[in-house]
Design a protein that fits this description.
The chain is an alpha+beta fold. It contains 1 helix and 4 strands, in the order E-E-H-E-E. A hairpin with a 5-residue loop joins strand 1 and strand 2.
Length: about 60
Amino acid sequence: MSGTTPVLAVFDSSGAIAGSLTFIGYLEVIDCIQNRGVTYEATIINITGGVFEVSVEPK
């Protein structure tokens, strides 16, 4: 978390921070990670300029 707003951080395969995600329902994903121990994996589907389309699925 950063400040009072939850942040969904994304790490690359080497463990370095790659950025953060926001989408409708991202707070539910954060809740699942923090309170239910669910692990997720994000896969980049498309990159257009600086916009990344990502699929987020539980592992």
